[in-house]
Amino acid sequence: MLATRLMRVIFGCYLGVATLLTCLQMGLEYQAANRKLQQDIAGLEKTFSPGLSDAMWRYSTEVISGILSGMREMPVVTGIEVRDEKDALVARIGRMSGEPSADSAATGLADFFDQPLTRSFPLVHVDGNGVAHPLGQWTVYSDRAVVFEQLKHTLIIVFINSMLKTVMLWLIFACVIRRLVGRPLAKIDAFVREIDADNLGARPLVLDADGNSELQTLAATLNKMVERLRATFAENAVLLEGMRDMNSTLITKVAERTRELERLAQTDLLTGLANRRKLDDVLERQIETARAQGAPLSVILGDVDRFKAINDRHGHKIGDSVLVAFAAILGADLRAQDTVGRWGGEEFMLICPQTDLDDALAIAESLRLRIETTPLPKVGCRTCSFGAATLRPGETADELVARADAALYESKHLGRNRVAASR
Q1: Which CATH class is domain 2-152?
Q2: Rounded distance, CA 122 to CA 45, Å?
Q3: What is d(CA 416, CA 384) in angstroms, rounded to the nearest whole number?
Q4: Residues 154, 30: contact at Cβ < 8 Å?
Q5: Ramachandran bin of 304, using left for φ above 0, alpha for ψ from -120 to 50, beta for the remaining angles
Q6: How far apart, in whole angstroms, are the C-alpha atoms of residue 205 and residue 216?
Q7: Which H or E element spans position 168?
Q8: 114 falls in which pLDDT band (50, 70, 90)?
Q9: Contact 412/307 with Cβ under 8 angstroms?
């Protein structure tokens, strides 16, 4: 019967939407609690890092153990460990990542969500002279099963509520559709099935007078629609052709706009150079190529010396113009295989494939001399510092950039306006 099929279709759609929304609600609740868990763990650094750093500086294992015991009492923490600057274990408490929990047999469905979550924080002591002394790091271990345990009762209530709504809706459909509109809908179904382009309006729809005034109105409306369909077929064909043309034009414009958005997503809006996202992609690809070909790959980081003083004295607008001019100098004689971009703030990166450390230092020194002798807008000649590093076997992109950044820091520390290398 049409009524039965209609009920199944409507109920199926509702069940699908209800299931989707229920799953979405459950997922959002889980994600919100998961974000809260990560925020709580990140907040531990501000709370406990000063005390742990002080205890590590004094190497007071009793104080360290006391702090770890206090943190272990927090629901979001499953374990903590402290290691010194040589990565030697100083203290640990609780369950680390990958170790089974003591009550793993009783956790049930929570084991399915038992995904480890680990955060490490540095331990640094700053003495009275302002010198930072790295002491090691401490690591917090948790897992997302904590989130599930907190949300388990809420998720069960949401699920039961959805199931009750679904059952009630099924009962309503069974009473209303089957008993009140089943037979009229069957006639309407038969009428609609007979409609095609060849027999439009051949036989009008007539319903028995059984008091279903709304369905009688529907039948009259269907008859009028059938009469009008014949006259509108030709018009619809013309409209369809026009829509196809419009769709083709729209697809072309969307493709053009997509290409433009992709270009903007990879470009620094101030300098017009590659942005950090683009630099990350290029560096990863060049590392793979360098390893496959056995060729050298170097990274140069450059930084405008005392740029903050320019902003403080002349304003950020002049500072921006200085960055634009600095970027133009970096890209003026760029080799075809090199990529230059803005790494962040006043710091720029040059990725040099097929370039060993000596060649990279020569490139950086050439740029340093050019910048030193080129007047910049409103501020005259300025200087810059560079740090260079060449890819080592098995080294990651982050490690390579970290060494180049350390070399840049060394050039700053040695007096600025120079080039330093990480060997």
Answers
A1: alpha beta
A2: 9
A3: 7
A4: no
A5: beta
A6: 10
A7: helix 145-180
A8: low
A9: no
Q: Residue with structure tokens 């040099």? A: 352
Quick one: CATH architecture of 276-422?
2-Layer Sandwich (3.30)
- Unique residue bearing structure tokens 């269907």: 222
pLDDT per position as a tens digit, 75-93: 778 888 999 888 888 888 8
76: helix, strand or coil: coil
Determine the pLDDT at residue 411: 94
3-state secondary structure 314-383: HCHHHHHHHHHHHHHHHHHCCCCCCEEEEEECCEEEEEEECCCHHHHHHHHHHHHHHHHCCEECCCEECC
Q: For residue 243, what are the CA distances in angstroms to 193, 211, 246? A: 28, 43, 5
Q: Are 140 and 83 in contact (CB under 8 A)?
A: no
The first and second tokens of residue 395, run together, are 């080294």
Q: What is the dihedral of CA 12, 15, 21, 27, to 10 degrees?
A: -110
pTM summary value:
0.43
Each residue of 279-296: pLDDT tens digit?
999 999 999 999 999 999
- The string of pLDDT tens digits covering residues 392-423 is 999 999 999 999 999 999 999 999 999 999 97
Q: Is 103 exposed, middle or buried (0-12, 13-18, 19+ CB in 10 A)?
A: exposed
Domain borders along the chain are 2-152, 196-244, 276-422
The token pair that represents 423 in the structure block: 């060997």
